[in-house]
Design brief:
By secondary structure, this protein is α/β, with parallel strands linked by helices. The protein has 2 domains: 4-138 and 186-317, Rossmann fold, CATH 3.40.50.10680; 141-178, no CATH class. 38% of the residues lie in helices and 16% in strands. Strands 3-2-1-7-8-9-10 form a 7-stranded parallel beta sheet, with helices on both faces. Helix 1 packs across helix 13 (307-317). Required for morphogenesis under gluconeogenic growth conditions.
Length: 329
């Protein structure tokens, strides 16, 4: 959409996810657009976030903190405050492994009485290039059906509850659901999705960071109704425990099983993570999407994204070939 004066505006992008995967996409997207909103999972129940959640009844702040840190200003001020947020205490006492940013975010929530306002204040402190919002207004639990945990009946589905437990299970995750099933969603989240040109889902822990967004009824409805185009960014490697043995195609098939009516427009994958490009292209096509293969990893053999390579790939996805927003939705 042209901006006033004829200059082309950068696309409005909403990125969905959590943890290191969302931080990777945000680190790239900040180079592509100045209209960026992160919608972050709130189901973490481990570490510092889990302790604050249990003791104070707040949203788990850790994934929100990581998203804010990924969007910090590039100057000395932003980088310094990013390091403050990410700092963890090393002590024999009760503060051990608490992240400073988790404590700061929780303090603002208690003082201001509103999670979104508190996150906006931290974003101002960091000079963040974008906005960070929680996926739901209340803490969530992830519950999974896991196969292979019952030695007497390996095909039996055993319920496993909690993000950490699901992410580290030794069985095979067959499906996930949320508790509560229909949590409230902040209006700013729904508005950001409504106004988006592109919605980016992934990379990240597939069952515990990516799919949960599709399971919140109000959020899922907004994603289905949005005029925006939708891009799924596939992981560079299967995650031990959660997606062991998953092919690139399996990730898309699981996504489709949890959101069968969700139309996709683009699937972005690194060739090193794709065994059969033709097969992946067919699966992507069955969901309405075109496959774009680009090297987005660091290239050192580790499954980590290179922010500038990923940014270049997103520019290709958002290019004129893909980016005419459909008016008929």
């Amino acid at each position: 959409m042209p901006a006033p004066g004829g200059a082309r505006r950068s696309p409005a992008v909403v990125a969905l996810g959590g943890g290191h995967g969302l931080a990777a996409s945000l680190s790239a997207l900040r180079h592509v657009t100045d209209r960026l909103t992160a919608v972050v999972t709130v189901a973490d129940d481990g570490g510092s976030s889990g302790r604050l959640r249990r003791e104070l009844g707040v949203l788990p702040p850790g994934d929100l903190r990581m998203a804010l840190s990924a969007l910090c200003d590039d100057g000395e001020w932003g980088r310094t405050w990013r390091d403050v947020l990410q700092h963890r205490f090393d002590t024999d006492g009760s503060l051990h492994e608490h992240a400073t940013g988790n404590l700061l975010i929780t303090t603002l929530w208690q003082l201001l009485g509103d999670p979104v306002t508190g996150l906006d204040w931290v974003a101002r402190l960091l000079g963040a290039r974008g906005r960070v919002l929680p996926m739901a207004a209340v803490p969530l639990d992830i519950e999974a059906d896991v196969l292979g945990l019952d030695a007497a009946d390996p095909d039996a589905a055993v319920p496993v509850r909690g993000q950490v437990a699901v992410a580290t299970t030794t069985g095979r995750v067959a499906g996930v659901r949320l508790v509560p099933e229909d949590p409230p969603v902040h209006e700013d989240v729904l508005q950001a999705i409504e106004e988006a040109d592109w919605i980016v889902l992934g990379p990240g822990s597939w069952f515990t960071s990516v799919l949960p967004h599709l399971l919140v009824p109000a959020l899922a409805d907004a994603l289905h109704r949005a005029r925006a185009r939708r891009c799924v960014t596939l992981n560079l490697a299967a995650q031990p425990g959660e997606t062991d043995g998953f092919s690139a195609e399996a990730h898309l098939e699981v996504l489709a099983a949890h959101a069968p009516d969700l139309h996709l427009d683009a699937v972005l994958a690194d060739p090193v993570a794709v065994e059969d490009p033709m097969s992946l292209s067919r699966v992507a096509g069955s969901l309405g999407a075109r496959l774009l293969l680009r090297q987005v990893s660091l290239g050192d053999g580790t499954p980590r994204h290179d922010a500038l390579r990923l940014a270049a790939a997103y520019r290709d996805v958002f290019s004129s070939t893909f980016s005419d927003v459909r008016e008929d939705r």
